[in-house]
Design a protein that fits this description.
Elements (H helix, E strand, L loop, with lengths): L2 H37 L7 H16 L2 H8 L1 H17 L6 H28 L6 H26 L8 H23 L20 H16 L2 H30 L7 H25 L1 H7 L2 H21 L20 H28 L5 H23 L4 H48 L1
Helix pairs in contact: 1-4, 1-6, 1-7, 1-9, 2-5, 2-14, 3-4, 3-5, 3-8, 4-5, 4-7, 5-13, 5-14, 6-10, 6-11, 6-13, 8-14, 9-10, 9-13, 9-14, 9-15, 10-13, 12-13, 12-15
Main location: membrane
Membrane topology: Multi-pass membrane protein
Family: Belongs to the unc-93 family.
Length: about 450
């Protein structure tokens, strides 16, 4: 089997295990910390604040990630970053407010180098003909993390109004072991030569310091291009909706007391449904990669936008406005709130997210292949800025205001992505026409 394709599979499984640990923790963190505070009132750590610190640090260090990867290479960067995810989960065994936020900041640094390294490594293992397939396969494997982790949490949280110490310790211990397994997978990745050119106008850098300096400068120059500025609006939207479905929507269900006799169980099921949507979307676009390459990425992004709009409308009618904060007996327009609607919306959130992210990965790994490290770093920078902002306002804005922000940025982001995709199609047609004309000229001269 092709070593590059094997690397894509190993990469997907490594991220699946690491993020089975982290995404499951992110989904239950708010609820878990509330239970810890109930047992120990001196503990004042907040789940939304922790996640905001993670993504704020993530955003800041994305600018330095290309330079770090110039020193270490993407494989080492991903292993080091994955270790910070493991440490973050371990700290929940030793509840401390200052340790929670320190681990969150450290995780943000690790996330920057992990995701930038992942984007660069995926581009190295792909070309224009298989980048859509590889992106879909990676995304499907990654999002299995939402399925397996939340299925475990669902069974452990059954019939529990309060998450007791024994249950917390078991969940955290298992998630730690799974994260370690992911680190081991990433450590087995095989070397693949670099297929990018950071700056063709400069002579090849001779030292690691030169490589780091050029990588940083190239990322800044790329950020100011028209296409990247337009794509940044789509990146921002993925950050807002990422924070919503990964850290806000699950607790909102768990805090809505009238949705079920045991709403904490529904929270776990919602996480599973998000994962099913993500895996279904990633698998579908991996299987249909040849067709999406032919017809373009814009139809899938438009479909993702419409799917998310339907989900937001249903959530607006189903959950009360104060659901993100704490246990509430309030209702929205549906009385009582419908469990099946909450789970359907979770599936739609995952499916729509897969539509956006697989096509963004495909575009960055295809259109921006000559500077894949900088392109993926800018994607994760912009996305994590939006996620950090979202988690900060999630502690203060009601559910309806958050949904309104998602609708506005979703509309703008989808439109901007389509503009860039149409421009890329036009350039591809022009280049194909030029090649045909040159070939015809050479043929006429030969005759």
């Amino acid at each position: 089997m092709d070593i590059k394709f094997v690397n894509v599979l190993i990469l997907g499984f490594g991220f699946m295990f690491v993020f089975t640990s982290f995404q499951t923790m992110g989904n239950i963190e708010k609820t878990l910390l509330v239970s810890i505070h109930d047992d120990d009132p001196s503990f004042n750590g907040d789940g939304y604040t922790s996640l905001a610190v993670i993504y704020a640090t993530f955003a800041l260090f994305n600018w330095l990630a290309p330079s770090f990867i110039a020193f270490t290479g993407p494989r080492t960067a991903m292993v080091v970053g994955a270790c910070t995810y493991t440490f973050f989960v371990v700290t929940f065994l030793f509840p401390s407010t200052w340790l929670l936020y320190v681990a969150s900041a450290l995780l943000g640094v690790g996330a920057a180098i992990t995701w930038t390294g992942q984007g660069s490594f995926l581009a190295r293992c792909s070309d224009s003909g298989n980048i859509s397939r590889n992106s879909g396969i990676f995304w499907a494997l990654l999002q299995c993390s939402m399925f397996f982790g939340n299925l475990f949490v669902y069974y452990e949280f059954q019939n529990k109004d309060q998450i007791d110490y024994q249950t917390r310790s078991l969940v955290i211990g298992v998630l730690t072991g799974v994260a370690v397994l992911g680190v081991i997978f990433l450590a087995t990745l095989r070397y693949v030569p670099d297929n990018s050119t950071v700056d063709t106008e400069l002579r090849q850098p001779q030292t690691p310091w030169d490589s780091a300096r050029v990588a940083f400068r190239s990322a800044g120059q790329l950020f100011m291009t028209r296409d990247m500025l337009l794509l940044s609006m789509a990146f921002l939207y993925t950050g807002f909706e990422l924070s919503f479905f990964s850290g806000v929507y699950g607790p909102s269900i768990g805090f809505t007391m009238k949705i079920s006799d045991t709403p904490k169980e529904i929270m776990g099921l919602a996480g599973i449904c998000i994962g099913v949507g993500e895996v279904f979307g990633g698998s579908l676009f991996g299987i249909l990669a040849s067709k999406t390459t032919r017809f373009g990425r814009d139809p899938i992004v438009i479909a993702g936008y419409l799917i998310h709009m339907v989900a937001f409308i249903l959530i607006f009618f189903n959950l009360p406005d104060n659901a993100p904060f704490n246990d509430t007996d309030s209702i929205s327009f549906f009385n009582p709130p419908r469990t099946w609607i909450a789970l359907l919306c979770a599936f739609l959130l995952g499916l729509g997210d897969a539509c956006f992210n697989t096509q963004i990965y495909s575009m960055l790994g295809g259109v921006f292949v000559k500077n894949s490290v900088g392109a993926f770093a800018l994607f994760k920078f912009t996305q994590s800025v939006a996620a950090a902002i979202s988690f900060f306002y999630s502690s203060h804005l009601g559910l309806r205001a958050q949904l309104g922000i998602l609708v506005v940025f979703g509309t703008i982001g989808a439109a901007c992505f389509c503009i860039v995709e149409w421009s890329a199609k036009r350039r591809a047609r022009e280049e194909s026409r030029d090649v045909s004309e040159i070939s015809a000229s050479i043929s006429s001269l030969d005759k």
